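Quarterly update from the structural biology core.
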Amino acid sequence: MKIFIATEAKIYLIDDRLYSTNSFRIVLKRYHDAFQEVILCSRIYHADISSLPGRYEEITSLVSETVNVRTLKEAALGKHDAEMRQQIGKCSLVVARVPSVAANHAAAIARKLHVPYLVEVVGCTWDSYWNYSTASKLLAAPSYLMMRRTVGKADYAVYVTEHFLQKRYPCHCPTISASNAIIDCSEPGVLEKRLRHIVEAKEKTCVLFTAAAIDVPYKGQEYVIRAMKLLLEKGLRVEYRLAGNGSPDRLQHIADECGVSNQVVFLGGLTRQRVMEELDSADIYIQPSLQEGLPRSVIEAMSRACPSLGAKTAGIPELIPQECIFRRADPADTAAVIEKMVRADRAVYAQQNYKKAHEYDQAVLQERRNSFYDRIKQAVSGGSRQG
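Predicted structure, tokenized:
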């Protein structure tokens, strides 16, 4: 069965070979394995191998054809309309991964051509635009309404959250919840190792850790740094380790301004294995994002039995206890919640998180997806639509 996938993912073309991030490659492979033939509509950039960013892997064998919508504004205006119509007309199903201008456009074409489509709802476009910049706030409302329409008229939907995105972008056709987290909870001894770490770390400086791009303001690391200043004024010194690609200049300036630069460590972009190692050595994971879907990094931290804190954003409150949630963009509340966790019995939260993480084990989620895909294939091959 041939399907058309429209997404916001950035793809690199090097010597007739396609490359994507490891995380998107995993998503693409799921669809390829389930449906066999994939036409990919995304932003495709020509590059040479020396300029390929870290953690990119080849995806050539997973894609049969491509549609390049590098300039998403042009896609919205219909410059790629004829090519997209032609390719969608060949397909039995469209997969629209939203938020994405290209995905919204592909869904609209699918409706006109009476091709069924599945939406994969991975984030909130309102939060993305509203928290990116002052100018982007003007795009929040129209983007929100467009995504509501795309999701609301879909034939099928996969949400990464249990509740948040379902309420904000409802779909009344068949849906499932399945995070994009890649968690394997089969490794023995993880919880026992964490409990030993908690005992051994009692007399040491508490280490906080965040894994997210450091040059994207809506990831919120600056509010943790500002909270550290408030904690230091109360006599509580913590260390903050940040993994993620991007220039650290903006956050370094904030750390200097707050007088905590010697407590902030920028680790740069890390491999998945290195991230796991940092999680195991950290005392507390913290996700201060202003915009998310269901953050994989929090689930990964929970799978390492790491006590975790997060902003009241999107699906984060679905993952961790209410007392571990702080108001977003609020350094004072962030500081208060950090202080409580530093002084709490962290073994209790380690055990709770580790148990919760098992709900997101990749084997459990993949079985759920495969069952849903089989249902879709049966309906599509039989010529029936759900919407």
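The radius of gyration is 22 Å.
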